[in-house]
Amino acid sequence: MALVEALLMHVSTTGALLAAVLLFLVAYLISISSSSPEEGKDPPGPTPLPLLGNLLQLDLKQPHMSLWELSKKYGSVFKVHFRPRKVVVLAGYKTVKQSLVNQAEEFGERDITPIFQDFSQGFGILFSNGENWKEMRRFALSNLRDFGMGKRGSEDKIIEEIQYLKGEFDKFEGKAFDTTHPVNYAVSNIISSIVYGSRFEYTDPRFTEMVDKANENIRLSGSASMMLYNMFPFLGPWLKNWRLLMKNLELDIKEISELVSSLRQTLNPQDLRGLVDSFLIRKQTAEESGENNSLFHEKNLIFTVGNLFIAGTDTTSTTLRWGLLLMAKYPHIQDRVQEEIDQVIGGRQLITEDRKNLPYTDAVIHETQRLANIVPTSIPHMTSCDVHFNGYFIKKGTCIFPLLMSVLWDEDEWETPHTFNPEHFLDKHGRFVKRDAFLPFSAGRRACLGESLARMELFLFFTSLLQHFRFTPPPGVSEDDLDLTPAVGFTLNPIPHKLCALKRS
């Protein structure tokens, strides 16, 4: 009898536990899918699992590809759950433009994931919101322009740096080499000269370490383990990549602080060398006038400089390296570029003004940006208020992924979206044409603030290198063997490869 009672009690306890689990699952599913009639309809999306969300439905090495595939099933506005948060994904040119441009205020906040909170602490430009973001962006834009961004001053800096980069390529005497370091150092020197007021030698260990760590941070922050960290922040100390990122951040802050300290010691208000000098003057003025709440303090200086250094190096150098790789893979396109350069420029030093007379070269650069798709999900946005959008209701504070790859590869906007085709940017007469769906720099309030500088750099660096070198695969490697599969990272870099830079006569 006692045994029977024990069995009944066990069955009863098990049944109660199962009932509780089922009740939890029902409540969970209701909570993630319900919205009041007054609010409106929730975007569709795959059903998430408790605790894991939609983790098992995503390729953590290529999350953008998973999201792109999901957009084909669920439409241009859909949701996924990156535990514990719901993310609304916007796909296609029309939808992304409607959100970022036409409803810029509603979709204009920055969603700051745990790893980017670690990196910024709410300061700087890229990963801040509110007054801090507005003030730092306004200051950076104003001073980048003052110190030459997009103007003749920048052009002179780029043309000077091109000579150093050509010298680095010459050292290999036509032998195969990895373009990563010399291209990264050259591009980084442009933003360095604007921010710090001077360029660095490629042999300067402090400079090379800063650039190499910046690129490593970009790679690691887009890794699968950091996606897990953003979903389960308590895992941080157990993740090798997180520990390495935190170590790099500590070193970055130390190095930037030392450079700032050196500039502070030689600061002359009558002769400002770069953005750091300008910030130090604003900081000094605020301190002297007793502005206790001034945003011009040391942390904003360090993180703003760090933001500009990384953003001003990675995207442009990555795009340039894609361009050189594509020229080696498609020699018939390289032929046309060099033929146009030879006819229009000859052997003289080209300038930005030459762009309008080099339509095919310009089209190749734009097509490189389009196909390379180096920031496929953009940097996450966040809604600043409750939003009714395309028939759906999106709550204030919802994380938004504008899927830029779905714009750059939109089958309704591009004739051959998955093929390297410069004709996308040419009319039937061979003249360059702008395309509305060309949004590699994003759009709206959070668009890249260095777009004009990046466009100038890409044109001058790419065209000058093609003017002086022919790029080919290494001996024994065919064009077909050159792999265009991107490496895993926050931005999509070419996988490690080598090219030959053959000097043109």
UniProtKB/TrEMBL annotation:
Pfam families: p450. The lineage of its organism: Eukaryota, Metazoa, Chordata, Craniata, Vertebrata. Gene3D superfamilies: Cytochrome P450. Heme binds at C448. Belongs to the cytochrome P450 family. Keywords: Coiled coil, Endoplasmic reticulum, Heme, Iron, Membrane, Metal-binding, Microsome, Monooxygenase, Oxidoreductase, Transmembrane, Transmembrane helix. GO terms for molecular function: heme binding; iron ion binding; oxidoreductase activity, acting on paired donors, with incorporation or reduction of molecular oxygen, reduced flavin or flavoprotein as one donor, and incorporation of one atom of oxygen. It is found in: Endoplasmic reticulum membrane; Microsome membrane. The chain crosses the membrane at residues 7-30. This is Cytochrome P450 2K1-like. It comes from the Eukaryota. Residues 239-266 form a coiled coil. One of its GO terms (biological process) is aflatoxin metabolic process. Its cofactor is heme. One of its GO terms (cellular component) is endoplasmic reticulum membrane.
